[in-house]
Structures are given as C-alpha cells and as structure tokens.
C-alpha cells in the first residue's frame, strides 16, 4: 500500500499542507505502474479492507502486489500545487528490504523526517540508515545538501543514536563491512540493531544549511 497524505496533517498542527495529493508508482525502468488522485476513485473496497484507508477523501492510495525489483513512488500536488505531504509505504512482512526518500531539508520544523516501523522476525532487526547529500550531484540533482546530519529517535522522541559529523566518525569498520557505506565522507550513516517498534530519522544540515537530501533505510537481516 502506498499512501499520499496532505489534509490529514493539519490535525497534527502541520501548516502549509498539500491540499490535494497525487501519487504515481513507477517500476525500475521508469514506466508508470499505477496512479491515483483521490483514493476512493479506484480500489475503494479493497483499500478499506486493509484498514489503511487515508482519512481524507482528497488523499491518495495505491494497493498493488509487486514482483521483486526496484520501484519509485512520487508524491505531487494536483494541478502543480505545492505543500507539505506525507508519503507512506506499507508492506507485508516479506516485502521491503530498502526504502529511500528524497526531499528538501530546510531549517526549524522544515527538516526531512523519515519514519519507519519494524516488526523484526525474531524480535529485532539490524538496519543501516543513511543521509546522502553531495552524492546526489552525480545524478544531476541541483541544490544538494552539502553536509547532512542524521538523528534516530524512538516512538517517544528519545534520541537513540546520531551521526553529526560524517559517517567515518563512528562505526567506520562495521559500516564498511555492510558494503553500504555512503560514497562521500561528509554524508551520515547509523548502523543499529533495533527492537520491533516505530522509529523516526531526522535529516538536517550542518550549521542550519539547506538543500536536497536522500534518506535511506536498509534491512540487513
């Protein structure tokens, strides 16, 4: 299930929300697999049966069974409108091994926030979480965040771990052993074994700098 929320965020005191989200799902070759504007337009009964129907009729949802591979979900505003939105992906237990989100990192409350839930097959799961900025320039992304920082927090907002300098400053050997070390020394990474639960990762810029960043979570076991 892929959901694109906007109006619902006002209930959580988020201002400037995306009024009418539109979600597109692409396969690994860039072909459109599915799109949705208002979730009740298509698959209404099936989406409701999951218990994950968006709270607002203007919000978007796509329910699909996908073959193994790489996919991209894009959240945009209908008629090119802009605002703050929430893009969510829910999967069966055998589903996701990596989730990545690209977004603009501002200051104050306008940082890049990535949330994820883990059930953990045996009660825990090992993850590597990355925040990339300079690497994005290699892919033609302008305005990339020059020096990302990364925080990992639990469901109560308590800080579990952080990487404020660069990924080599802590756990360098262990991170390199995963083969998933960030390409640029200024980028951030956290390697942790986490119990089942809900977690939030926050990407900021060093010294309140701003720019486009990529937040990633990889499951290692």
Notes on the structure:
With 221 residues, this protein is mainly beta. Helices cover 6% and strands 41% of the residues. The strands form 4 sheets. Strands 7-14-9-12 form a 4-stranded antiparallel sheet, covered by helices on one side. Strand 10 (148-154) and strand 11 form a beta hairpin. It is globular and about 50 Å long.
Secondary-structure blueprint:
Layout: E1 2-5, E2 21-26, E3 32-36, H1 44-50, E4 60-62, E5 72-77, E6 86-89, E7 98-105, E8 112-118, E9 124-132, E10 148-154, E11 159-163, H2 172-178, E12 188-195, E13 197-205, E14 211-219
Antiparallel strand pairs: 1-4, 1-6, 2-3, 2-5, 7-14, 8-13, 9-12, 9-14, 10-11, 10-13
Assign an overall shape.
globular
Quote the distance from N terminus to C terminus. Answer: 23 Å
| Major β-sheet profile | 4 strands, antiparallel
Strand count: 14
Given as residue ranges, the uncertain stretches (5+ residues, pLDDT < 50) are none
Largest beta sheet: strand ordering? 7-14-9-12
Please estimate the helix content. Answer: under 10%
How much strand content do the residues show?
35-45%
> Structural class of the secondary elements?
mainly beta
Oligomer: single chain
Helix-strand topology string:
EEEHEEEEEEEEHEEE
């Amino acid at each position: 299930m892929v959901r694109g929320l906007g109006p619902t965020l006002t209930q959580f005191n988020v201002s400037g929300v995306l009024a009418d989200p539109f979600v597109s799902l692409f396969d690994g070759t860039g072909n459109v697999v599915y799109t949705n504007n208002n979730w009740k337009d298509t698959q209404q009964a099936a989406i409701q049966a999951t218990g994950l129907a968006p709270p607002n009729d203007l919000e978007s949802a796509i329910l699909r069974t996908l073959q193994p591979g790489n996919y991209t979900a894009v959240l945009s505003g209908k008629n090119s409108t802009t605002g703050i939105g929430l893009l969510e992906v829910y999967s069966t237990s055998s589903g996701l091994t990596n989730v990545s989100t690209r977004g603009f990192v501002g200051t104050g409350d306008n940082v890049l926030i990535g949330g994820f839930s883990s059930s953990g097959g045996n009660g825990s799961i090992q993850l590597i979480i990355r925040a990339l900025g300079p690497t994005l320039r290699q892919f033609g992304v302008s305005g990339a965040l020059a020096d990302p920082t990364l925080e990992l927090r639990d469901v109560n907002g308590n800080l579990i771990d952080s990487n404020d300098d660069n990924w080599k400053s802590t756990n360098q050997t262990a991170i390199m052993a995963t083969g998933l070390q960030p390409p640029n020394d200024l980028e951030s990474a956290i390697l942790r074994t986490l119990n089942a639960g809900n977690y939030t990762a926050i990407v900021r810029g060093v010294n309140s700098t701003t720019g486009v960043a990529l937040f990633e979570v990889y499951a290692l076991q």
